[in-house]
Amino acid sequence: MSDKHSTYVPKTGIERWLDARLPLPRLVHDSFIVYPVPRNLNYAYTFGGILTVMLASQIITGVVLAMHYAPDTGLAFNSVEKITRDVNSGWLLRTLHSNGAAFFFIAVYLHICRGLYYGSYKAPREFLWVLGCTNLLLMMATAFIGYVLPWGQMSYWGATVITNFFTAIPLVGNWIQQLLLGGFAVGNPTLNRFFALHYLLPFMLAGVVTLHIWALHVVGQNNPTGVEVKSKTDVVDFTPYATVKDAVGIIVFLFFFAYFVFYLPNFLGHPDNYTVANPLKTPAHIVPEWYFLPFYAILRAITFNVGPIDSKLGGVLAMFGSIAVLFLVPWLDSSKVRSAVYRPWYRLFFWIFVADALFLGWLGSQPAEGAYVVMSQLATLYYFAFFIIVMPLLGLIETPRPLPHSITEAVLEKNKAKGRAPGPEIRHPSEGR
Amino acid sequence: MADLSELENGSAEHTLPAEAQAPVEVDVSSLMPGMSLVVQWCGKPVVVRNRTAKEMTDGQAVNLAELKDPIARNANLPADAPATDANRTAPDKEAWIVMVQVCTHSGCIPVGQQGDFGGWLCPCHGSQYDSAGRIRKGPAPENMAVPVFQFISDTKIRIG
């Protein structure tokens, strides 16, 4: 992937033969062994590796689950119960897969926050960021569709409510909804096409993830200082330094994941989804999976008409807009400094944004009435203001703190402050901290 | 409330496969005033209700200027027919309401004989409909839809 100057030297005859025909070992060597990474990467930079592991885990457990699942409205609910009770280790596969989706989202939200905090979307990494946003969209589509497959009450009514919002689109709305459903209401054709798409989308995601990693290896990694790599002392080899650090991050993450899988397997689910789907009865409180709650709150916050846009269409536009605005972040942020470490005001607005997103998530779980609606509207307002007002304006008026001249200088300064001996020998981020 | 919902669920023998899009014939001879049944048509629940005298007079007393959606939304009438109580029913069958029991906001099934207007209340986002199925309060934009239907005899309705 980094094709600038490969240092790979094939050692055996087989490697030489393969290198001349399909240089796969060279690709691995250049991308994951000698690939230079900034020496100051912290644990916030391990979520990329964690996400790769989660995607692989979801695909593997998902493929095996699909061997036992029956995508038919008469059979789906019972086949999921059968997986839990009769299939050997089926309970494990299912809890790994359902909780895996939740932990996939935990990791991706932390990964996005990392990017927003250290300015990882700024030139030359705009396209890397856009590919990441595409991955988020694919993840969301896959997760939403996957939640329909167990054919419980939340599956059914979640699918009904969300597909119904497409009817808000003028002229083609009803046509789009009927195309998604394969009929006038959620039914067997819906379940069949959702199952097919749920099998397809993760592989599309894997494809875009590959492009995301490719783009990353072309532009190189950002780092907590936001200062570009300038010399060889700024970087270390991917292996062993980043490999081992990623492995530590992955193991700690899997520890939390395993705790939920083995001790709280249904904590993140909803009890109503253990009732088989009933097209004639709507549950009293429909809530999406927790990772969609902030967006659900934004959807419901628009209770008023704006000119020709009625509240229903307005809510749909706001919800999709809350994702779409992420794609524009590289061009909305006007600051010349990347990292929030040197941007005191941006740092403040960033943490308010994080609190705001969590608050929206809580509001999404509450009924849409009374004070909750007003709070949702205010929180939605800040969500969009952060991107559309704060990001463009703050870069123009904020005075950033002085930047270090290089990553090496930043690391050595930090060590000096901690009273450790600096030295030209310090090359390892693990020792440098 | 509980007895009514049991009545609605008790009409299971009238339900058809969700994919049925052909016209559905319903025997309504068992419906006394104040009783409803639900059939599935095009995969959606269609409620047939024999309204009480009070429900009819309440529905007829509504001033059309108060309505959020002034259009009848009745597939048997012109598209711009006003949402009078009579236009929500069938000719000479003013007691009867036949409508797709799907909230026009986000597609949930409103619960019958609930809410402030003596009609239907949607559990999802709190939309309230009156005794003629017209939207009166909450986020739903339109009255619940009246499908193409006719009385083929005094006790039989064909929907679709």
Outline the structure in words.
The complex is a heterodimer of chains A (433) and B (160). Chain A has helices at 13-21, 24-32, 47-66, 76-85, 90-118, 126-148, 153-164, 173-181, 188-219, 238-263, 293-301, 311-327, 329-332, 344-364, 371-397, 407-417, 429-432; strands at 36-38, 235-237. Chain A has 433 residues and is mostly helical. Chain B has 160 residues and is mainly beta. In chain B, the strands form 3 sheets. Chain B has a 4-stranded antiparallel beta sheet with strand order 5-6-7-8. In chain B, strands 1-10-9 form a 3-stranded antiparallel beta sheet, with no helix packed on it. Chain B has a 3-stranded antiparallel beta sheet with strand order 2-3-4, covered by helices on one side. In chain B, strand 2 (35-41) and strand 3 (44-50) form a beta hairpin. The radius of gyration of chain B is 14 Å and the shape is globular. Mean pLDDT of chain B is 85; it is low at 1-19. Chain A binds chain B through residues 73, 157, 160-161, 163-165, 183-189, 279-286, 300, 303, 310-312, 367-369, and chain B through 8-9, 15, 18-19, 21, 38, 40, 42-45, 105-109, 122-126, 139, 141.
Q: What is shown here, in short?
A:
Chain A is mostly helical. Helices cover 63% and strands 1% of the residues of chain A. With 160 residues, chain B is mainly beta.
Attribute tags:
heterodimer, A: 433 residues, mainly alpha, globular, B: 160 residues, mainly beta, 10% helix, disordered N terminus
- Main sheet summary of chain B: 4 strands, antiparallel
Q: What share of the residues of chain A lie within helices?
A: 55-70%
- Tell me the helix content of chain B: 10-25%
The greatest inter-chain interface is formed by:
A-B, 30 and 24 residues
Question: Secondary-structure element order of chain B, as H and E?
Answer: HEEEHEEEEEEE
| End-to-end Cα distance of chain A | 30 Å
User: What are the segments of chain A in which pLDDT stays under 50 over at least 5 consecutive residues?
Assistant: none
How many strands in all of chain B? Answer: 10
